Amino acid sequence: MCVHLCALTPYDPFSKKKSVTRTIRIDEAYDDVLRYEAERSGVSVNTIVDQILRKYSQSYRFLENSAVIVAIPTLVSFLETLDEAIIGELGKAAGSEHPKELLLKRGLPLTYEAAVWYIIELLGKNSGWYRATYHNREDKDIIHLSHTLGRKWSVFVNEYVVEFFKRVLEISPETEIGSSSVTLMITKSKIKRAS
Fold first, then answer.
1. pTM over the 0.70 mark
2. Among 82, 151, 153, 166, which is most buried by a count of CB atoms within 10 Å?
């Protein structure tokens, strides 16, 4: 059995598997922040800069002028005012169009590997929707998405990812919704892997 946590992705569509050396000039105050964060996280400044550049390359550059950052308590307050059925409809509507568009916008193929990357890396690690755990089992893949936003967020995420898999890959994953999680189970015989 192979287990990948959200920091490890089974597929990285942007990686060229080699690094380059680049010298840049930054304000000393930003360097202080980078050094502080590196020390706090127990990693090098280079690792912090690489993480920032990866998030920008994979996500943030595509969202300029089309996304907002909302504090978690504010999002939870919004969710609490809506009926669960409406939240499900919103998730389904968003999952039917946006993920496919965002994969194509990045020049990615509509493959299972790209879809899993999108769910784990882009929505999980880069966008903070949840913490994703990927389990590659003999007969199925299991993707567990945990968060702290409550059941209504679970309903939204469930409808979003189910509709995404249906529209992009013609796969209907089995799901389990919890008060703070969604678990997807995808039977391997249904998966068309990229060659």
1. yes
2. 153
